């Protein structure tokens, strides 16, 4: 089965930039999508499989990918961006997988 | 507007089954796959499987195969996920999520249900 690896936690100063990465062999064939989750809430879709931002997501969120790594960048982090972030992809059999999540703390 | 509304919280004993519903509105139900994702207390998201509401095809993670059944009723735009032989470690919030069709073949979940807490306890 495919796996996606994320750093458990990162911190960023208010207004600065943070990059969250997601690594996995499946990312060489399939795009990753990204989700933000705050405590007690359902996940929110923040970056699409082709690194586009869904409607309503601030433009400080961006996505990129290269080889087996996908990245989510928050440029000018705000206090409300403090959350858990998960990447998701799939394998050739259609089996989906989430990364373990990255907890972002805004200092 | 697109909405996925799930059924309410459930409590089951070990060995029992639970069936969670996900009612879709605001879009053509048969045009989008529905995925099921769960989250145990304090843990991350875990992908369980998907169903194609158009024809009923489904696929699930190996760890759930034989225990999970995903179905749909197109007449009421509702998807269902039934998990059998429940264990205490199945205690989790279960989410349904919509996956729009796209040429890349990758998954993306643009709308989510509110979640259904399933508690398994003797």
Question: Can you offer a commentary on this structure?
Answer:
The complex is a heterodimer of chains A (107) and B (122). Chain A has 107 residues and is mostly beta strands. Chain A has strands at 5-6, 9-12, 17-23, 33-37, 44-47, 61-66, 69-75, 83-90, 96-98, 102-106. In chain A, the strands form two sheets. In chain A, strands 2, 4, 5, 8, 9 and 10 form a six-stranded mixed beta sheet that branches. Chain A has a four-stranded antiparallel beta sheet with strand order 1-3-7-6, with no helix packed on it. In chain A, a hairpin with a 6-residue loop joins β4 (33-37) and β5. The mean pLDDT of chain A is 94. Chain B is mainly beta. Helix content of chain B is 0%, strand content 48%. Chain B has strands at residues 3-6, 10-12, 18-25, 33-39, 45-51, 58-60, 68-73, 78-83, 92-99, 111-112, 116-120. Chain B is globular, with a radius of gyration of 14 Å. Classes of the chains: A mainly beta (107), B mainly beta (122).
